[in-house]
Every structure is written in structure tokens, then in C-alpha cells.
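Weekly puzzle thread! Below is a chain. First person to post its structure in C-alpha cell form gets bragging rights.
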Amino acid sequence: MIRLTTSSLDIAYDDRLIVQNLNIAIPQGKITALVGANGSGKSTILKTMARIMNPAQGSVLLDGKSIHKQSTKEVAKQLAILPQNPTAPDGLTVAELVSYGRFPYQKGFGSMTKDDRSIVQWAIEATGMSDFAERPVDQLSGGQRQRAWIAMALAQETDILFLDEPTTFLDMAHQLEVLHLLQKLNEMNNRTVVMVVHDLNHATRYAHHMIAIKKGVVVGEGSPAEVMTPENMREVFNIEADIVPDPRTGVPLCLPYALAGEHAADKAVMHQRVVLAAAGA
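Winning reply:
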């Protein structure tokens, strides 16, 4: 099932076109990873699909309707986004941060209802943050802070969750902590997750669907096995890589061993040495 698509989408910064004629579809109830080199446009695409940026041309469609023509509150009931490196005001507690997720459902300056408080409590428990509910967000570890922000997004009760590089600047343990949480939310709540991922092997391990972007253009789209190929690694990342199955899960792993140009140059040098050795003989 597909609910979220882009149609002939152009995205620009001032007069500089970043993405042109983008047509992608996000599978419902799956985890989708956007991958690409730095500056490829993947975060720009995510922000536009989440309605943070406006397209230059084309549209982002949710259930066939342009999200940029709907009210902010209506969209916020359907899409939630966790931007890269979010910050909270000093002293704001986890419970207070998570309560902000109920804003789309409140009228005027009304206070939270009993249902609102119940949903906030559920979001805190679902992300394993119950023991930290009254602790200031700025006193948490990196992984705990990310979980608090994800809890706020969960409190919005949306079917679709966008995340822009949610594991940036986290150590390996905290990266796995956040990715395991997203996997659990997808499996238990059938939540659609769309995330920009820097680590290719994290993408193949946790995503059902991958979209590889180069200079705003889709180079590969499909399952990790379909997208993670030596040819796509060369095209998108300019690297030579072996693609091997993960011994635990069977998903493809990327093992880079050279820059694409370097590999070609090494082969040329080796050939030249063979020729010279043969001539000397």
C-alpha cells in the first residue's frame, strides 16, 4: 500500500535547483532509508516531504492530496519529523518535551486533556524513558535525548515518522539503541518510518526499502539487495566495494576497499608493470 508519493518534484535553494523531477513512493508500514553522498539532496528531499520546505515545482501527495495545500495542524496529525540535532530549551523535562507532541490536537491555548496525558505517558513508556520523565533533556546522554525526541514525535500519533540522520554524533551503542527502537515501533505499531541514513550497513540492516540519491536524482530504489550493488556504490559514492551477506541476517553488507578512480589507476599501473617486465625479459 502506498500513501505518500512525490510527483514531478523540483526543489531549489534560491535559484539553485537541487532536485529535479523526483517521483518516488514510500511503502506504507515499512522502514525506508534515503542514502547518498554528502550534498546529494537526501535531507532536502526529506524536509520537503515532511513539509518543512516548499517545492519549486510538483507536489508531495498524501492519500492523493498535496500536503503543502493542507493546514499545518492537519498535516501534523499525519506526519511527524525529527530533524537533525534538535535542541530543547534549558531545563525542559522529558515529560514537558513529549507533551509538545499533542499541540496539533489542542484548540487555542487549551491545556492537555486526560486523553492527551495518557498518550504522552504511553509515548514515554514506549521509548523506555519512564525513569527519565522528570529529568531535564539537556542532562541526558545522546541516545536518551534521541529517544526523548522520538517520544515527542510518537505523541503526535502519526502514521508516518520522518528522521534526518537520527544516529549522527552517537557512539555505536547509542546508534543501535535508537535503530532498535525505530525497528520496534515499526513492527509493533505498523508505523511508516522514513529516515536519512549515513551508514549504509545500518540502512540495509534496518530498512525494508532503500532509495539511493545522487545530485537529486534517484539512482536506485527497491529492497536493500536490489539497491546495494557494486555498480550503485560506484555511481552514488564513487567507491569500489564488495557486497557480501551479513553472516547473522543475510542482508547485504558494503565493504569498501578503494575509491573508484584509484582502483582503475591501480589496475593501469599493474598492467604497465607487467608490460615493462615482459619487454625486459
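Puzzle host: Confirmed. Bonus trivia for everyone else. DSSP finds ten helices and 13 strands in the chain.
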